[in-house]
Design goal:
Elements: E1 7-11, H1 15-24, E2 29-34, E3 38-40, H2 45-48, H3 52-58, E4 59-61, E5 70-73, E6 76-79, E7 83-86, E8 91-93, E9 96-99, E10 103-104, H4 117-133, E11 136-140, H5 144-156, E12 161-166, H6 177-189, E13 192-196, H7 211-222, H8 229-235, E14 254-256, E15 261-262, E16 268-269, H9 283-286, E17 290-293, E18 299-302, E19 304-307, E20 312-313, E21 340-341, E22 344-349, H10 362-385, E23 404-408, E24 414-418, E25 421-424, H11 426-433, H12 438-444, H13 480-496
Helix pairs in contact: 1-10, 11-13
Bound molecules: flavin-adenine dinucleotide.
Flavin-adenine dinucleotide binds near residues 14, 33, 35 and 360.
Length: about 500
Amino acid sequence: MPADKPRLLILGGGPAGVILAQRCCSSFVVTLVDPKEYFEITWATPRGLMDPRVAAAAAINYWDIPDLGRVIQARVTQLTSQSALLSSGDTISFDFAAVCSGSSTSELFKSAAATSRGQRLAEMKELQGEIRSAKSVLVVGGGPSGVEMAAEIVDAFAGKAVTLVHGGKRLLAELPPRAGAAAQRWLEAHHVKVMLGRRVESKPPPDDPSLGATSATGTTATGTHSGSAHTAVGGAVAAAVPDERSWSGAGSYAHSHAAAASHPDGGHHTHHAHNPLLDSAGAAAAGLPSVVRLSDGSSLAADVVLWCTGSRPAAAFMAGGELAGCLDERGAVKVLPSLQVEGHPHMFALGDVNNVPETKLGFLAAKQAELAAASLQALARAKAAGGPAPKLQRWKPNGGTLAVMMVTLGRDDGVMRAGGLVFSGCVPALIKSRGLFVQKYRKLLKVNAPGPAPGAAGAAGASGLGRGAVGVAAVAGAPVGAVQAAAEVAQAVAAGCDGGSGSR
Ligand SMILES: Cc1cc2nc3c(=O)[nH]c(=O)nc-3n(C[C@H](O)[C@H](O)[C@H](O)COP(=O)(O)OP(=O)(O)OC[C@H]3O[C@@H](n4cnc5c(N)ncnc54)[C@H](O)[C@@H]3O)c2cc1C
């Protein structure tokens, strides 16, 4: 690579970072830094936690993705306007930089501990085993990730006692009310107990390391689990988490009782000392169901608790230094409409980490990367020519399209917002629920290695309806033409995941 090319440092290899790297690798000396050595298709993780084949297809080593430039496995610990300090102790200087560090969320969906693909697949498989053997599962959070998680469990393990607790008055608060109602109907029809309007006051370990032991004792004393976590979950009063406003959960993870002990119901559980998705402090040792404290003073027990609440921009490396003023009160990077970091025209912030007022979605992160790639090239050309700063494209929230969002309800159903319209049934199922865009994304990234043998969702794509196909069930007064229009928008979104759109 010629030395006279400008140096572009990309912080984070999620959808924004990898697309930007690929689009810029021919005109910049690109360095991509990420603590992991693999890219993960986050939106496939709820199903990947149920189906190892889906997990395997959704986790891709960076060395199998061409044209990323130099990839360094490290965490950026401090960023200035000129250079980045890495966890390895190295400092990398740059001419241009793009902050693509996304958001931190539940360990379920974005593992901080698993830095290799093998570790990630192992921890997911282990949790799947726990869910399979659990009699009861508690899902905390009724936003998209909690709803998807609960739906995947009952889709994969019919008959499992699943309870979903949510602090808000309705599910899927980001979507129109009828979307939440449709999701609730689906979940309840699949025997998920949905509990709204209450808070979980206790936090899972390690935030509250005393919880497991205390709860196990307390639960025994009050008889809430009484030898059957199923009964306990079904009969307990609900919990409440803050309304989930984005796709996942901060500080959340799964915890389960995980001691090598016999379950009161006779189940056997293995010790999982090193799996961050599974460790819990006290219940593990007791071999009892995990227990959460509820806002009304009662408690709720389950064999496995899956926290699916909240998410936070991941830009702590900008706090406390020269760039601290570039963060808003949520810790998101403040950007101009061009997606340049405020006050630093040679720096961009893309995807979940920036403060663009829109639902944070992977396909928007990728589209922002397309726009930024064109802008970086224009800036580099102008700089090389010694000319004035070029006029850059402006990002329109939601990519300038209808705000589209799809939430899967297992493999054969889903709910979807497209602008003011809500669909449930076959439209979201055909577009997202079957294939989760996994093969489309592998193709978009030009992944070198062949995908693992496709699971039921691995390569299915939009190929028709299967069991439980339901058709367009809820369009809330929309005429057929509007239904078709929205479906086309959604198809366009899906096509966008296939590289069919963008600014290049
Ligand atoms: C359950 C779930 C379902 C979802 N469903 C959908 C969906 O259907 N459609 C959709 O479009 N979106 C969906 N999303 C949202 C989507 O996953 C995110 O919007 C998308 O991943 C954001 O991409 P990003 O590149 O901005 O950040 P991320 O995907 O968060 O990637 C950030 C990268 O930066 C790295 N990083 C973090 N900190 C540092 C650091 N200090 N130094 C270096 N690297 C760092 C991380 O390791 C990571 O690889 C879903 C999310 C979840 C959790």
